[in-house]
Design brief:
FAD/NAD(P)-binding domain, 2 domains, eight-stranded mixed sheet, about 30% helix, disordered N terminus, disordered C terminus, FAD-bind_Monooxygenase_sf
Length: about 525
């Protein structure tokens, strides 16, 4: 456990002082809290804007919500779920699992729920982060941002949408008081959420218009309930679930070859998707509308067995002309067709490379993270630290996303890195730690070089994986076990550090101006660790 700060002169009256603030309590934030606790730390608090743990799985409660990653991969390695009912889990099961983990590890009392973080600002004179929230102010030596990539819904910029007088809501903010039975409904978007929503709404709506900008690739969903024998084995046979998890993991990892290394190997998967489309849609006109015009894998691959059949129903129409405007009671397509609707469901995804949360994090010299990313792109080091933002760690940061497997694996890898960082910081009494800019630049140059041959960059599509500079700052370009290997130990030599002793002895201005490279003790600890690039 780190030494406690005794000089509180810079802490405003009424401000709660802690060692570490964790922001968010989905898989990332909850996992971080548990691992910090297991490492013997008690000087942390988790700030969660919702009323419970769960993050994405607490918020996305639309009809049909389910995971598109196999159940056996969708749990913490230290808390396997022996209660999964099927091979792909529905949202309620996942949320119950997350809640059960929070209860098992008795971590809820470290949370402040209903706490909306309004700003996170680095105080150069105090060498601490000042966090303003709806539940009061906090001061912390370290911040772990675990807000995730799918937390801020992206709303379409459509003329007149604010004047619509019917029901309108985003898929991630589903209005459970709305009754869509017998209504005329429009769904905007055909991404991962939309293909789960459309089949459910099609069952009850009098008419459903699906507005599609780009047709997605859809693969069969190999989903089934586990047999009684399988459920028994998962619960009672030692090693059975671990072996099943390993098998699913290894199978998924093979996709990396086609996605990131040699896109030609995606051809068999594309043939499977085309066969799935031909088998489920017989109408050649409709089939033409929903046939993608880019290489499979360029955008997120979707899985569904009931999306295409839903589109074939007589009360469902796929509109590909684009939306010109929304009026008080209708959606007007670019070809001039006006379709009256009673409700609009916005399924247009989330802010990923342009998250509004970036606007409220202020690093050295008061520079917002959004401004930093606007200049250099959404870059970090190992997806976990960003130059200019000392003592801050990001979970699900730049280039940690996956196109083939479970993010929980990546999250655990990052948490390992953060926990080891805390050990090094405590061991060498480090006051501030910040990734070197040259290390970060070299690391990102290598990332973009590795990504240059991927299907994401050569598949003929424009996806949300790319930032405004045209770089893929979302996805990891290798095998997940490679990322795990890179993050198994905190490489202190890649960071600028200043000791707590120096910070206490020197005036704040001098400490800032003479920000040292890693101290001799820290370098000795680093030993033969390799800094920088992969």
């Amino acid at each position: 456990m780190s030494p406690q700060v005794t000089d509180t002169s810079a802490v405003a009256e009424g401000t709660r002082e802690v060692g570490i603030v964790v922001i968010g309590s989905g898989f990332a934030g909850l996992g971080a809290a548990i691992r910090l606790s297991q490492a013997g730390r008690t000087d942390f608090v988790v700030l969660e804007r919702g009323d419970d743990v769960g993050g994405t799985w607490r918020d996305n409660t639309y009809p049909g919500a389910a995971c598109d990653v196999p159940s056996q991969l969708y749990s913490y390695s230290f808390a396997p779920n022996k209660q999964w009912s099927r091979s792909f889990s529905p949202q309620p099961e996942i949320q119950r699992y997350i809640q059960s983990v929070a209860d098992k590890y008795k971590i809820r009392d470290k949370h402040v729920f209903g706490c909306d973080v309004q700003s996170v600002r680095w105080d150069e004179s105090a060498h601490r982060w000042k966090i303003q929230t709806s539940k009061g102010d906090f001061s912390a030596r370290f911040v772990v941002s675990a807000v995730g990539a799918l937390c801020e819904p992206a709303l379409p910029d459509i003329k007149g949408i604010g004047s619509f007088e019917g029901q309108i809501f985003h898929s991630a903010r589903w209005d459970h008081d709305s009754d869509l039975a017998g209504k005329r409904v429009a769904v905007i978007g055909t991404g991962a959420s939309a293909i789960q929503i459309v089949p459910q709404v099609a069952k009850i709506a009098s008419r459903l218009d699906v507005y599609q900008r780009t047709a997605p690739w859809v693969l069969p969903r190999v989903d089934r309930e586990y047999t009684a024998a399988e459920r028994f084995a998962y619960k009672n046979v030692p090693g059975f679930q671990k072996l099943a998890r390993l098998g699913v993991y290894a199978t998924r990892e093979t996709q990396v070859v086609g996605l990131a290394k040699a896109p030609v190997f995606m051809k068999p998967i594309e043939w499977l998707a085309k066969a799935h489309l031909r088998r489920q849609i017989s109408d050649p006109v409709l089939r033409g509308k929903v046939t993608p015009n880019f290489r499979i894998g360029c955008k997120r691959m979707l899985i569904s067995n009931n999306y295409f059949p839903a589109l074939s129903q007589p009360n469902v129409d796929v509109v590909t002309d684009g939306i010109d405007e929304v009026t008080a009671n209708a959606v007007v397509a670019k070809d001039g067709t006006r379709r009256e609707v009673d409700a609009i469901i916005v399924a247009t995804g989330f802010h990923v490379t342009d998250s509004p949360t970036f606007e409220h994090i202020y690093g050295r010299d008061g520079v917002p993270l959004s401004e930093t990313f606007a200049k250099i792109g959404q870059q970090g080091y190992k997806g976990t630290t960003v130059s200019g933002y000392p003592n801050m760690f990001f979970l699900v940061g730049p280039n940690t996303g996956l196109g083939h497997s479970s993010m929980v694996y990546m999250i655990e890898s990052q948490i390992n890195y953060v926990v080891d960082a805390m050990r090094a910081i405590d061991r060498y009494d480090i006051g501030t730690v910040e990734v070197r800019r040259d290390v970060q630049d070299r690391y990102n140059a290598d990332l973009q070089s590795a990504l240059s041959s991927s299907v994401w960059m050569n598949g003929g599509c424009a996806s949300w994986y790319l930032d405004e500079h045209g770089n893929n700052t979302t996805l990891w370009p290798g095998f997940t076990f490679q990322f795990r290997d890179e993050t198994k130990k905190f490489d202190l030599i890649a960071y600028d550090t200043v000791s707590r002793k120096e910070l206490a002895a020197a005036p704040a201005a001098k400490a800032t101006a003479t920000k040292a490279k890693a101290k001799p003790a820290a370098n000795a600890a680093a030993g033969d660790e390799k800094a920088a690039a992969r």
